[in-house]
Amino acid sequence: MGTNADGYERTVPMIAIDEVIKEKELNGPYPIKVDAQGAELNVLDGCQQTLRDTEVVVLEVSMFQFMKDAPQFHDVVLYMKERGFVAYDIILGWNRPLDNALGQIDVVFVKESGKFRENHSYATMNLSH
């Protein structure tokens, strides 16, 4: 949308989350929260090892392509599913001023076979499993 909305492109140093976890000798499970203005999947690319020891990931997700090369909702859901995570909750939403359409949401993803999805009952605990 141009520099008025996007600012100016600049190069900044990066370090992968996997490298920080290894360097600091941290142990999981890890919670991950990413709000990187359309670069959320790039951040997650740098923590593939860490994701193995993660139960919850919170991502800001756009419903439109607001930033150049940024993923949209369907891209993020597929990316997370391919890594064993599914949508669990939506905790915040922002409407775009243009037409008041839902523009961005914070989505909670959890490990598909993890502790937050141990029970799939709707209203009562299913004790037969």
From TrEMBL:
One of its GO terms (molecular function) is O-methyltransferase activity. Residues 9-86 form the Methyltransferase FkbM domain. Signal peptide: none annotated. SUPFAM superfamilies: S-adenosyl-L-methionine-dependent methyltransferases (SSF53335). InterPro entries: FkbM_Methyltransferase, FkbM_mtfrase, SAM-dependent_MTases_sf. Gene3D superfamilies: Vaccinia Virus protein VP39. Pfam families: Methyltransf_21 (PF05050). It comes from the Bacteria. NCBIfam families: fkbM_fam (TIGR01444). This is Methyltransferase FkbM domain-containing protein. It comes from Hydrococcus rivularis NIES-593.
